[in-house]
Amino acid sequence: MKARNVAIVLTAAVALYLVLLAGRAVALLRTGEPVPMVLGAGVFVLPLLGAWMLWTTWRSGNRIQRLARRLEAEGGLPDVSDLPRRPSGRVDRDAADAWFDERRAELEQEPDDWRRWYRLAYAYDIAGDRKRARATMHKAVELEALESGAADR
Q1: pLDDT digits over 84-139, tens only?
Q2: Every domain of the chain and the residues it spans
Q3: DSSP-derived secondary structure letter, 43
Q4: What is the CATH number of domain 78-152?
């Protein structure tokens, strides 16, 4: 819960900044002069983009948390507590690679199971490949949504 509180505080700070930025944009738009008005329109785009980015980030985080809670309830959350660690606390690279290979093999057995995609995303994350971890987690979220949608019918 600690990470969520930090995320809430940071989101509030960014939201405040976006409101202040929008206020500057409105002030520029109200001048009635062409150059400041063009600048104001350009500046106004930034808070809109920022708000959209905050929204999509929180939506994604909530979806991933829903999957984590479901996996936890099923007893299927990935456990890497037994893997050797570096002094920094990160999982040893060779151990992370071996653990990743196991998760990939599991996924190949059941490629339509969101749980396996979630665990593979976690494996990418501990291996340090954040870009692939995000893409893989996105796939897990999509598959879980399809499964939940089918269960709702």
Answers
A1: 999 988 888 889 999 999 999 999 999 999 999 999 999 999 988 999 999 999 99
A2: 3-73, 78-152
A3: H
A4: 1.25.40
